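Please review this one:
***
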Amino acid sequence: MTLKIERFSEKRGTRIRLSGELRCKQLTDVRTEIDSDGQHVILDLDEVDLVDIHAVRFLNSCEAEDIEVVNCAPYIREWMSQERARDGNSERS
């Protein structure tokens, strides 16, 4: 399965809805979509069913840049939390 990217303009900014598998090879395309808009961006992962570690790190970096990540599957959100905790621990070492 591939990744489908849809863009919607909203009052609060732009919603980018992702569907399918979010993997390393698609992250450049997602970043291009994010960067092409100067408004507030929301990444909607409601229809994302599979991610890899690169995608998890990408999503964490998006949140660090104040990009909202919404409708995320619980396993993805948990993986993001674990990865942030791991990164926090390695910075202290």
Summary: Helices lie at 27-35, 53-64, 74-92.
